[in-house]
UniProtKB/TrEMBL annotation:
<comment type="similarity">
    <text>Belongs to the activator 1 small subunits family.</text>
</comment>
<feature type="domain" description="AAA+ ATPase">
    <location>
        <begin position="58"/>
        <end position="223"/>
    </location>
</feature>
<dbReference type="InterPro" id="IPR008921">
    <property type="entry name" value="DNA_pol3_clamp-load_cplx_C"/>
</dbReference>
<dbReference type="InterPro" id="IPR013748">
    <property type="entry name" value="Rep_factorC_C"/>
</dbReference>
<dbReference type="GO" id="GO:0006260">
    <property type="term" value="P:DNA replication"/>
</dbReference>
<dbReference type="InterPro" id="IPR003959">
    <property type="entry name" value="ATPase_AAA_core"/>
</dbReference>
<dbReference type="InterPro" id="IPR050238">
    <property type="entry name" value="DNA_Rep/Repair_Clamp_Loader"/>
</dbReference>
<keyword id="KW-0547">Nucleotide-binding</keyword>
<dbReference type="InterPro" id="IPR027417">
    <property type="entry name" value="P-loop_NTPase"/>
</dbReference>
<dbReference type="GO" id="GO:0005634">
    <property type="term" value="C:nucleus"/>
</dbReference>
<dbReference type="InterPro" id="IPR047854">
    <property type="entry name" value="RFC_lid"/>
</dbReference>
<dbReference type="Pfam" id="PF21960">
    <property type="entry name" value="RCF1-5-like_lid"/>
</dbReference>
<dbReference type="GO" id="GO:0005524">
    <property type="term" value="F:ATP binding"/>
</dbReference>
<dbReference type="Pfam" id="PF00004">
    <property type="entry name" value="AAA"/>
</dbReference>
<keyword id="KW-0067">ATP-binding</keyword>
<keyword id="KW-0235">DNA replication</keyword>
<keyword id="KW-0539">Nucleus</keyword>
Length: 344
C-alpha cells in the first residue's frame, strides 16, 4: 500500500526541542531525528548545497547515497519539510523498502501521484521520496525513467540508497548524486554528549569512547547502543557498553596485538583462546581486530603489514574457514611480520 507520510510539520528552529517534549516513549533515534538542516551532523558541503537549493525552490531530482545511519532519510525529509511546509502532507509521497514497489506500483501509484494536481506556491514541486531505492528491482526502476521526465514540471524525485551502483544508470543520469560518508568519531561523540545531557545519562569518558568505537561512524548505531546501555545499566562505561553490544573488548584485542608486535605468540594466543571460549564468532573477532589496528599507535609500515594479514584472514573467514586454527595462524603471521620489520 502506498503510504502518505504525515509526520513532522515543524520547520522552525525549535522543532527539535518541541519534538523532544512530545515524544517521551520514542526510541532516541526517532526522538532526536533532526528536523532542520542545522541539526544534521556531518557531510556539511552536501547539506549546505541542499539548503541553498531549498531556499531557491528549484531542486533537481536527487539521489543521496551512503552508508547506513548517517542521515540520508533525515536529510530528504528535512528538505521536503522546508520546501513544502504545511503542504507536506498532500504533496509528498514516501515509498520505502517496506512498501511494495514492484513495477505495477510504479506504473499506477507513482504515476497517479505525479499526475495529481496539488496547489503549491510558485517554484515548489510535489516530491516523491523513494527511500532504499537500491532494493527496487531493475524492472521497477526502468518503469520510473519516463515518469521522471514527463512530470518534471510538477514533480521532483528524492531517492536514497546505500549502494548507488544498484541504481540503474539512466536513473542516475536524471539525478544529482549526493554522496554521504561515514561520520567522524568527533561528530558522533559531540552528538551523543548532547543527548546524554538532555537525557541525564550517567556516563564515563571511556563509556562514550566505547559507544563511538562500536558505532564506527553510524549515528543510528551510536544512539541505539547508548540507549540500550543506559536502560540496562546505571552507568554508561566501557564495560557495560561492550556487554550490551556483545563485542570483544578492544582492550583485550589491543593487548593481543601488542604481544604480536613483541613477537610473543604465547601471550597473544591466550587472548584469542579466551575470546574463542567466550563464544565470539570468528567474523566478530576479525572485524574488531581490524577496527583496533586501524586506530592503534604503531609504526605505519607495520600497521599496513598487519592490515594486509588481517584482510587475508577475513577473506578466509568469509569463505567459511572460521576455526581457531585460522585465528592462530593470523597471530603467527603477525608475529613474523613484526620480527621481519624489526630486523629491517
Ligand atoms: N547526520 C546525523 N545527524 C544527527 N543525527 C543523525 C544523523 N544521521 C543519523 N542520525 C540519527 O540516526 C537516525 C537514523 O538516520 P537516517 O534514517 O537518516 O539514516 P539513513 O542514512 O537513512 O540510514 P539507512 O541507510 O539505514 O536508511 C536518525 O533518526 C537520527 O536520530
Ligand atoms: Mg534511510
Amino acid at each position: 500500500m502506498v503510504k502518505y507520510v504525515q509526520t513532522g510539520k515543524n520547520t522552525d528552529s525549535n522543532a527539535e526541542s518541541s519534538n523532544v517534549k512530545k515524544n517521551y516513549n520514542l526510541p532516541w533515534i526517532e526522538k532526536y531525528r533532526p528536523q532542520t538542516f542545522e541539526d544534521i551532523v556531518g557531510n556539511e558541503d552536501t547539506i549546505h548545497r541542499l539548503s541553498i537549493f531549498s531556499k531557491k525552490g528549484n531542486v533537481p531530482n536527487i539521489i543521496v547515497a551512503g552508508p547506513p545511519g548517517v542521515g540520508k532519510t533525515t536529510t530528504i525529509l528535512c528538505l521536503a519539510k522546508i520546501l513544502l511546509g504545511p503542504s507536506f502532507k498532500d504533496a509528498v509521497l514516501e515509498l520505502n523498502a517496506s512498501n511494495d514497489r514492484g513495477i505495477d506500483i510504479v506504473r499506477n501509484k507513482v504515476k497517479m501521484f505525479a499526475q495529481q494536481k496539488v496547489t503549491l506556491p510558485p517554484g515548489r514541486h510535489k516530491i516523491i521520496i523513494l527511500d532504499e531505492v537500491d532494493s527496487m528491482t531493475d524492472g521497477a526502476q526502468q518503469a520510473l525513467r519516463r515518469t521522471m521526465e514527463i512530470y518534471s514540471n510538477t514533480t521532483r524525485f528524492a531517492l536514497a540508497c546505500n549502494y548507488s551502483e544498484k541504481v540503474i544508470e539512466p536513473i542516475q543520469s536524471r539525478c544529482a548524486v549526493l554522496r554521504y560518508s561515514k561520520l567522524s568519531d568527533a561528530q558522533v561523540l559531540a552528538r551523543i554528549i548532547q543527548i546524554c545531557q538532555k537525557e541525564n545519562v550517567n556516563y564515563t569518558e571511556d563509556g562514550l569512547e566505547a559507544i563511538v568505537f562500536t558505532a564506527q561512524g553510524d549515528m543510528r548505531q551510536a544512539l541505539n547502543n547508548l540507549q540500550s546501555t543506559h536502560n540496562g545499566f546505571e552507568i554508561v562505561n566501557s564495560q557495560n557498553v561492550f556487554k550490551v553490544c556483545d563485542e570483544p573488548h578492544p582492550m583485550l584485542i589491543k593487548d593481543m596485538l601488542k604481544s604480536c608486535s613483541n613477537g610473543d605468540i604465547r601471550k597473544a594466543y591466550k587472548v584469542i583462546e579466551h575470546l574463542w571460549n567466550l563464544g565470539y564468532a570468528a567474523e566478530d573477532i576479525i572485524k574488531n581486530i581490524f577496527k583496533v589496528t586501524k586506530t592503534m599507535d604503531m609504526e605505519e609500515s607495520l600497521k599496513l603489514a598487519f592490515i594486509k594479514e588481517i584482510g587475508i584472514t577475513h577473506l578466509r573467514i568469509a569463505d567459511g574457514l572460521c576455526s581457531l586454527i585460522q585465528m592462530s595462524g593470523l597471530l603467527s603471521r603477525l608475529c613474523i611480520q613484526a620480527k621481519m620489520q624489526s630486523v629491517d
